[in-house]
Specification:
Substrate binds at residues 298, 302, 329, 356. Pyridoxal 5'-phosphate binds at residues 218, 356. Its EC number is 4.1.1.20. The chain has helices spanning 3-13, 22-35, 54-63, 72-80, 97-105, 115-124, 162-172, 190-204, 232-250, 262-265, 298-302, 389-393, 405-410, and strands at 17-21, 42-47, 66-69, 88-90, 109-112, 130-135, 157-158, 176-180, 212-214, 255-258, 269-280, 285-289, 308-310, 318-324, 332-340, 347-350, 371-376, 379-384. It is of the alpha/beta class. The chain has 2 domains: 22-261, Alanine racemase (TIM Barrel, Alpha-Beta Barrel), CATH 3.20.20; 269-387, Lyase, Ornithine Decarboxylase, Chain A, domain 1. Strands 1, 11, 12, 13, 14, 15, 16, 17 and 18 form a 9-stranded mixed beta sheet that branches. It has an 8-stranded parallel barrel with strand order 2-3-4-5-6-8-9-10, surrounded by 5 helices. A hairpin with a 4-residue loop joins strand 11 (269-280) and strand 12. Helix 6 runs parallel beside helix 7 (162-172) and helix 8 (190-204) packs parallel to helix 9. The longest helix has 19 residues, at 232-250.
Amino acid sequence: MEATVLREIAEEFGAPVYVYDSGQIRSQFERLTRAFSQIPRLKLNYAAKALSNLTILRLMKHLGSGLDTVSIQEVRLGLLAGFAPQDIIYTPNGVSLEEIEEAAALGVRINIDNLSILEQFGTRHPEIPVCIRINPHVMAGGNSKISVGHIDSKFGISIHQIPHLLRIVDLTGMRVNGIHMHTGSDILDIDVFLYASEILFDTALQFKDLEFIDFGSGFKVPYREGDIQTNVEELGERLGGRFNAFCKEYGRELTLAFEPGKFLVSQAGYFMARVNVVKQTTSTVFAGVDSGFNHLIRPMLYGASHEIVNISNPDGKERYYSVVGYICETDTFGSNRRISEITEGDLLCFKNAGAYCFTMASNYNSRYRPAEVLWHEGKAYLIRERETFEDLVRNQVDLPALFDPQVADAH
């Protein structure tokens, strides 16, 4: 998006503010679809946890996506956004059997990732088909905190437990309609992904009633000019051909499913914050903004890098700044970044702010969460209002009489 448009949006809706470009989301969805065009039955299930605003979910449905959910709340958001239950897959981790049963009662597809719950659910509901999440014991992803398919991960049923899994399926009489894996995020090495896929194919041969195989996602997007990214076109060509060959071996056409989140929305997102203060210390120039890790935690949580641009002075002389927030804790967005000269009052834009940004925002330091805006076909639409003080205290129960005898006497 152009700096002039972003500045106009910030003037209209205030800052800090998140902005999402629907055209970029559409472009990514179509790119991934084209990459796997050789697959007769392809299903993209958008990972709601990346960005769960209702308007974004409605956009995904409009594009033809299904929905990948990890909580009963995301399931309900998906239904509210208009997704048919059969187009929603529910892949929780560590939740109660009761929550899984609640999701099943809503008619969505169920994906189970541990033997204990699988046996309990299969015993009580053998008539409900389930997908099974396999842990292929493959280390993949850009950071240990987002690598979820390795041997020490809490996710999935170990490939070494397949015999036990098969005994549970036989004992309960349940039907397995899908096999799933997700190795991690920011995957670059296609060969590693394909290696894990072979493990999934081998596992799939153990089940005779499959309808789909879900390969997760984790495709890396570029975070700066010239940054490396997953070559989804090459992956589509290589995995697509292998999948079609497997379907012939299996004896019928299966659906190839993915659950992209970051790939679809990351580059479509922009976060804007205004500079409160420029502070020179003995060794650093800080640009302090009216935001913090309460709005954008990824840099502090796992070292994520977001390009930062001064859209108030995009063509100015570059200088080095450390961009920091207003949270009363170490709160750094970027250290020693080359940014066009910053003055107090300037508007800074953080790119790649579409995925795992607003959804991980909080009210830490009793700060308000920002507004969200959708840029769609040349017009800006408010899709979430900025929080107010009333929002902060809405669900708190104020009991002044506990500590003030005069109030207690008045009652």
